[in-house]
Design goal:
With about 100 residues, the protein is an all-alpha fold. The protein is built from five helices and no strands. It has one domain. Helix 2 packs across helix 3. The termini are far apart.
Length: about 100
């Protein structure tokens, strides 16, 4: 992993420790070697990619098919306010005058 990608997160003052099995360590070391990186760089870059994906999966809404069509339609053709919402809009406009 190029150092510029890690450097964008600032200085490396934090520390992360994890207990892993010998098998896991061998596996991680082999993968790091195949990528031509150190074990630490491999673990950090892999963990960072996984964390980014998890956060994105929770923050980005993906809609397909009919759900997407319904959502876009609601944005393009919003329902008119009625009842208590209409009264609240009137009160708000009146208070802004």
């Amino acid at each position: 992993m190029p150092s510029t990608e890690i450097d964008k997160f600032g200085s490396k003052d934090g520390r992360l420790e994890a207990r892993i099995s010998n098998e896991q360590k061998r596996l991680f070391k082999r993968a790091a070697q195949l990528q031509g990186s150190t074990l630490t760089d491999f673990v950090v870059s892999t963990l960072q990619a996984a964390a980014t994906k998890v956060i994105q999966d929770h923050e980005v809404m993906s809609l397909v098919g009919q759900d997407r069509e319904i959502f876009v339609s609601a944005l393009l053709n919003p329902a008119l306010p009625f009842g208590r919402l209409k009264k609240a809009v009137r009160r708000y406009k009146k208070s802004m005058d």
